[in-house]
Amino acid sequence: MKLLHLDSSIMGEASVSREVTAAIVARLTAENPGIVAAHRDLAADPIPHLTLAGLPAADAGSRALLDEFLGADIVVIGAPMYNFTIPSQLKAWIDRILVAGETFRYSEAGPEGLAGGKRVIVAVSRGGHYAPGTPTEPLEHLETYLRAVFGFIGIVPQVIAADGIAIGPDNRAVAVTGALEAAAALAA
Ligand SMILES: Cc1cc2nc3c(=O)[nH]c(=O)nc-3n(C[C@H](O)[C@H](O)[C@H](O)COP(=O)(O)O)c2cc1C
Fold this sequence. Notes:
Number of helices: 5
Largest sheet: 5 strands, parallel
Number of domains: 1
Radius of gyration: 16 Å
Distance between the termini: 12 Å
Strand content: 15-25%
Bound molecules: flavin mononucleotide
CATH architecture: 3-Layer(aba) Sandwich
Structural class: alpha/beta
């Protein structure tokens, strides 16, 4: 079983999402010793913005990123909120995996996801709170976007969230502890 582990935080050792994705991968590999995990650091080794020449149909590097995703059984994604959405480094990766005819297709019945069957676990980390019903809910374009993207290709992601990271050290500690506990409790 193949696991693809993606991080996109620019914060290095201080990153919350990196700490949580590491805990998720540790949990899954402990529960499934047969897992072969590959780590892709989208901040340290960024994928360029998509261009016409860089479309997966035309570019071997983009095609390899798509194949890496298609070949994974489990995908673990660290997704910090930067300016209300995903880091542009993560967007560049998504631009390589949403490919008509590969991960979705348009039919007379509308769009159809073709990547169902994969398990996707997303660790989101946000400085503030964006819960439904709060005044900041309309600014939430991180989790809503990722749920829409993976839903479009046929996947319902599992999401582990650490919220209120920027409010203060106490909030941060509670949020990180909660996320790490959720990671440690993941089903195998
Ligand atoms: C460049 C930058 C932009 C950010 N923008 C937001 C934001 O729009 N909303 C928010 O709630 N927090 C924002 N934050 C706070 C981060 O979401 C928070 O620190 C989170 O822990 C980031 O995940 P990381 O620690 O894995 O990098 C921002 C942080 C940085 C560094």
